[in-house]
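Quick illustration, no need to memorize.
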Amino acid sequence: MMAALASSPALLAQTAKASAGTAWTGHDSWLLAVVGISIALVVVLISWVRLHAFLALMVGSFAVSLLSGESLGKVADSFTTGLGGITGKVGILIILGAVLGRLMADSGGIEQIVATLTRAVGPRGLPWAVTLVACLVGLSMFFEVGFVLLVPLVLQIAKRADYPVLRVGIPAMAGLATVHALVPPHPGVLVAIAAVHAQIGLTLVYGLIVAIPCAVVVGPLFTAYIWPKVPATIPETALAAFTTLADEELSDRGPRKLPRFSVTLATVLLPIALMMVKAGCDTFGWARGTTAYQVLEFLGTPAVALLVAILVALVTFGYGLGATREQVQRTLHRSFPPIAGVLVIVGAGGGYSQALADSGVNAAIGRAAGHLHIPLILLAWLVAALMRTATGSGTVATVAAAGIIGPMAHGLSDSHAALLALALGSGAAFLGHVNDAAFWLFKEYFGLSVGGTLRTWTVSHTLLSVTSLAGVLALYAVTS
């Protein structure tokens, strides 16, 4: 497999083009140093100064532009141009995904999925069931939102069944993290797709192929090994808080019945199905040139697919369960506040990436990679992994790395472009540690020590990154 990569005319030629006919200069070395300086600055501002990631990335963007020699007039322009470009392409999908996720949560759809699968598999199969639930829930909502919504259910399952909390907690995290890193319409993957000019439908298909074995390895299999070795207890304060939250949400829901399992599953998977049909049309040319083809292409566009799913969810998760217009309106209003932070960080990451591109850092990294003969797919994973290690955010890491790798991704086949986007998402899952806000959420919710969180959260994310890279490389070998 590695030999095939090394000899690939598609994925290696991109770095060769970047360096062809251009000698390495001292300015190139300085530009690479600028990347390191700006990353260190962002890390210090976030972790030590406790500055919000948006402001830290904005300062980091300005630092890149100034240190690389850009004119003062262009410093702000680079950031705002990148911010506008990213939020324009990805922002609408973030918003629609949040609305669909909130409709499912407030209707009790998540509870229905958990209850049905728990009855079906019994106590021994709970880690597998929770992994599947987390993957399904994660398809339509962001990691942080899905994590907070799943934690009460996970803690209640562990408490009521007298079950070790990590045996259900780690699979829940693994399922969410896997689809967040590899499956559109999550924002990081979408940014990577846009940056390398990949087809979203084909990336979705490949992402699911890679994500399924990864979720199994990082979820039930890793959990079976690690949970007896790490002590964990359910914090009573967290359990009490989540019980109160559940009661409040139940009172909001009123006397409505829960949606059926089959209806919940069909609604959640509807946008994925529409996008996969579009991928089939693009890849195999089904009904090309006909009106049906145009309709399927339209419905499979991510924004349209999510909108269609929301319109269906208004019935299946709302009016069809007896909800009033006021209750549905309240749910819709509750969709937006949780994603404000995601939107601004993604936008700031786009501004930071644009500053890197405008400064010439991308070309310098391309020349460096060309001299080192690093295949582009591995370079993408490595850059994203370094960004994740430095910044702590998978989304920020994907966005920043996509800004560096994107200009090199020209002339790739559809399949190789899709795999390159997945390599960026895979690298951005690497080594979540103490500069990752979710690291501390996991620690507090499951009553872990810092060492225990490193052995569970950090190791599982590293395992996810490495196994998903192996999956991407395996697909590359098959499609080459």
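The mean pLDDT is 81.
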